[in-house]
C-alpha cells in the first residue's frame, strides 16, 4: 500500500476534474481526496496498491474532452490508516 500527493496543472478547474477524479478513484479502488487550489492547480492524495495508483494517474492523464493536464507531479506521503473512500474537498 502506498499514498501519493499529486498536483495537476493545466485546464483542471471548472471542467468537472474533481468529480472525474472521484469516479476514477472508485473504478480503481483508490482512497483519498481531491481539492482545487487557489493557484489554478488541483491537488489530490491517492492511496492504494502501486498498480492501483499507477492506473488512477494514467486514467487522469487521459481525462475527458473538457480538461487538459499539462503537468503532473507525484510524491509519496504517509499512509492514512482506516480511510474508506475518495472525497472531494472544498
TrEMBL record:
Keyword annotations from UniProtKB, A to Z: Hydrolase
Classification via Pfam families: Acylphosphatase
The UniProt record lists the keyword Ubl conjugation: no
Domain Acylphosphatase-like: 3-90
Active site (record annotation): 18, 36
Catalysed reactions, as listed in the record: an acyl phosphate + H2O = a carboxylate + phosphate + H(+)
PANTHER family assigned to the protein according to its UniProt record, in alphabetical order: ACYLPHOSPHATASE
Protein name from the UniProt record: acylphosphatase
Amino acid at each position: 500500500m502506498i499514498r501519493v500527493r499529486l498536483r495537476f496543472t493545466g485546464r483542471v478547474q471548472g471542467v468537472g476534474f474533481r468529480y472525474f477524479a472521484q469516479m476514477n478513484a472508485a473504478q480503481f479502488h483508490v482512497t483519498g481526496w481531491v481539492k482545487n487550489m487557489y493557484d489554478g492547480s488541483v491537488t489530490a492524495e491517492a492511496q492504494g496498491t502501486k498498480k492501483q495508483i499507477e492506473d488512477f494517474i494514467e486514467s487522469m492523464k487521459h481525462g475527458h474532452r473538457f480538461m487538459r493536464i499539462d503537468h503532473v507531479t507525484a510524491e509519496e506521503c504517509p499512509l492514512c490508516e482506516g480511510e474508506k473512500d475518495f472525497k472531494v474537498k472544498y
